[in-house]
Amino acid sequence: PSVPRHTNRLINEKSPYLLQHAHNPVDWFPWSQEAFDKAKKENKLIFLSVGYSTCHWCHVMEEESFKNKEIGEIMNKNFVCIKVDREERPDVDKVYMTFVQATSGGGGWPMSVWLTPDLKPFVGGTYFPPEDGVHRVGFRTVLLRIAEQWKENKDALLENSQKILEALLHRSEIHVRGQESPPPSKEVMATCFQQLSNSYDEDYGGFSESPKFPTPVNLNFLFTYWALHRTTPQGARALQMALHTLKMMAHGGIHDHIGQGFHRYSTDQHWHVPHFEKMLYDQGQLAAMYSRAFQISGDEFFADVAQDILLYVSRDLSDQAGGFYSAEDADSYPTTASGEKREGAFCVWEAEEIRALLPDPVEGATEGTTLGDVFMHHYGVKETGNVSPVKDPRQELKGKNVLIVQSSLELTAARFGLELGRLGALLWEGRRRLSAARAQRPRPHMDTKMLAAWNGLMISGFAQAGAALAKQEYVSRAVQAAAFLRRHLFDPTSGRLLRSCYRGKDNRVEQSTVPIQGFLEDYAFVIQALFDLYEASLEQGWLEWALQLQHMQDKLFWDPKGFAYFSSEAGDPSLLLRLKDDQDGAEPTANSVTVTNLLRAACYSGHTEWVEKAGQILAAFSERLQKIPITLPEMARATAVFHHTLKQVVICGDPQGEDTKEMLRCVHSVFSPNKMLILADGDSSAFLYRQLPFLASLERKDGKATAYLCSNFACSLPVTSPQELHGMLCS
User: Fold this and answer.
1) Is the alpha carbon torsion for 287, 291, 293, 298 positive or negative?
2) pLDDT band at 1; cut points 50, 70, 90
């Protein structure tokens, strides 16, 4: 590579996204006191650009504007320019995204915001083309106009920014209004189910026409709704909606049939043409959902998809030290000789390429059939490409095919006169060869930043899959990742989580000079992961750490006046607002996850004040939960867990005994959202016996592993057979 012409301060950062901009002609600063001081001292406006490393339009804006020397000069002369990786600093991102959404009605990344020297926003948008077009004003023009306004109307601009800030403070407040009781669970669940049912796509599954997102939070809600209404028509519909959606996604192009794992979302109604980036948080949540679908339906199809996701994560997103990387990009070079990257280049195929890779005649099939014919039919491959031009505005996928399962195995087998088993073997061989050919292509960029929150979601995915699929290797991988978090993303002296660490030189794990402290979501997702990990591994050390972190979360983020938790802690002068997220989106919001965390924490510790806190969160979001619970499906689900009271399933037995293992397998084979597992192994000095004195009174009946169902510290009659336990779990 040639020596770069420009280098700015971002060269000293660890974030892969910031490093991508280190050689722009723009004099970028990271979000730092140095930048704020410069803006004040020189009385300059700040231009804030927020994005992330797998964001397609962020790459486009960089190519068009931030690499442009003349635009760079305008930026450097008139503004202090700051670049933020939204995955490193979700707090900064949320403050200014709240502003952009409020003032423009939309939002997204790259986010472009202009701030006064004291960090108050006054103009914002997302992507700007470099020059003026017929319908859009260009970035160059916007920069010059804003610089002019600052010269001519500074006072009006400052006054306006103050008004905007006051309006934002007012708009974004979430607190208890008068009544302090949680909303009625039955109504919240019924409304949420109805709203999801109304937006459900009967043909292809999912909850919108297009674009279509995986939204695991919706599926999690539906599974819980089914579990509490198993015998009703609504319960049956909830299960059907969730399973059909998962099936259609797994058949679709959003699922990488050759390289495993799931892409971010589909641009069309059929789950066919995706945006090709792969995010860790999707893999973690979807692994859990497919495991749950298997647990409920017993259909091996779902277990296979869960294993496919975990194979991808273990192979491609895993650091040798045990952590998980954040994401894989959508754009890559089509060949080693290409000069420019294209979206999806790593994943798409031309028909002739597949024919050349799979020329073998298929014995026993209709005359003249090749392996290529069978494979192309099954995966919807067309000679001229299978991507509609409407879904490919930049013509990057012209003549290419995104693999999608268009017919069932039975239909494909019948079409070529093959037995099902034989067809399965042929398709497997086809995928193997395409995978080997794809390995020769240049790989997309990997964001090797490791985030506590997303690692938490992935640990939950491995732990839940390990328990539901009875695969010890998944539980071991979850344990390895939790040990990584403890070593690299936790400060034992302060007892606090850190937000991020990075793969550095020689593949060693590195930390930034000033580590970023954990945010609310880091605590919520890691605590959830540790509870899931305890239930899968039965190692009490993870529980102990989870409860310590819950105390720390309470201390740093709880709002004693308005209830619920703030997303970021107090005391950062560069943050204008302390916000509470109110939407379960691609990831659940931290307050939603925390409701269930608190109920689990109370059951493992005997601290009933945590149950009270859970109710106070629900009270703070009561209005939204009653009117539009579809925006908070994970919290709506938690209202049911709160209402039905979490039950403790206590298994008294020797962890190594076959009878104990059989009882544990029974617990793991049933999905019961309002139950949690405790193994009472008789060691009275252990953490759980110290926390929950009532465990000492539970005995093994006739020397056999014995199960009790306990609630509010009172327990059912003991049962010693897995069949009786199964009945108890399903009731």
Assistant:
1) positive
2) low
pLDDT range class, residue 674, cuts 50, 70, 90: very high
Would you tell me the crossing angle of helices 280-297 and 233-251 to the nearest 10 degrees? Answer: 130
Contact 375, 340 (CB under 8 A): no
| SS3 state of residue 536 | helix
Amino acid (one-letter) located at 494: S
Query: Can you give the length of the chain in residues?
Result: 731
Q: Tens of pLDDT along 443-479?
A: 999 999 999 999 999 999 999 999 999 999 999 999 9
> How many Cα atoms are found within 13 Å in the side-chain-facing hemisphere of 310?
29
Structure tokens at 15: 């974030």
Q: What does the alpha-carbon distance between residue 646 and residue 642 come to, in Å, rounded to a whole number?
A: 7
Give the 3-state secondary structure of residue 593: helix
Mean pLDDT of the chain: 96
| Residue-wise DSSP of 55-100 | -HHHHHHIIIIIT-HHHHHHHHHHEEEEEEETTT-HHHHHHHHHHH
State how far Cα 241 lies from the chain centre: 21
Give pLDDT, residue 179.
64
**E strand map for 97-145:** 111-115, 121-125
User: Which tokens is 426 given?
Assistant: 């042929």
Name residues whose C-beta falls within 8 Å of residue 2's C-beta, 6 or more positions apart in sequence. none
DSSP state of 440: T
Please say whether the dihedral angle defined by the alpha carbons of residues 684, 689, 694 and 695, taken in this order, is positive or negative. negative
CA pair distance 595, 613, nearest whole angstrom:
8
Tokens 């061989």 map to which residue? 429
Cβ contact 660:543 at 8 Å: no
Is the pLDDT at 176 greater than 90? The verdict is no
Question: Rounded to whole angstroms, how far apart are CA atoms 652 and 629?
Answer: 39
- Going by pLDDT thresholds of 50, 70 and 90, the confidence category of residue 42 is very high
What's the N-to-C CA distance of the chain in angstroms?
A: 65
Q: What is the mean pLDDT of residues 617-630?
A: 96
Position 712 scores a pLDDT of 83
Amino acid type, 206: G
Q: What is the DSSP string of 271-322?
A: S-SEE--EEHHHHHHHHHHHHHHHHHH--HHHHHHHHHHHHHHHHHSB-TTS
pTM for the whole thing? Answer: 0.97
The encoded tokens of residue 693 equal 């004195």
Measured CA to CA, the distance from residue 463 to residue 288 in angstroms comes to 8
Phi and psi angles of residue 451, each rounded to the nearest 5 degrees, phi first: -105, 140
pLDDT for the residue numbered 216: 98
Count CB-CB contacts under 10 A for residue 482. 26
Find how far residue 159's CA is from the centre of its chain: 39
Structure confidence at residue 505 as a pLDDT band (50, 70, 90): confident
- Look at residue 4 in the predicted model and tell me its pLDDT: 85
Instruction: Provide the pLDDT for residue 622.
Output: 95
Question: Tokens 């503004």 label which residue?
Answer: 79
The DSSP line for 89-103 is -HHHHHHHHHHHHHH
3-state class of 204 per DSSP?
A: coil
Q: Give the pLDDT of residue 367.
A: 86
- Least Cα distance to 300 among 402, 207, 424 occurs for 424
**From the CB of residue 663, how many other CB atoms can be counted at a distance below 10 Å?**
25
Angle made by CA atoms 149, 154, 156, in degrees to the nearest 5: 100
E strands, 498-621, are 500-503, 509-510
Cα 226 to Cα 232, 464, 625, distances in angstroms: 9, 19, 19
373: helix, strand or coil:
helix
Q: One-letter amino acid identity for 640?
A: A
- Cα dihedral 38, 41, 44, 45 sign: positive
- Per-residue H/E/C for 541-559: HHHHHHHHHHHHHHHHHEC
Quote the CA–CA distance of 472 and 490 in Å, as a whole number. 26
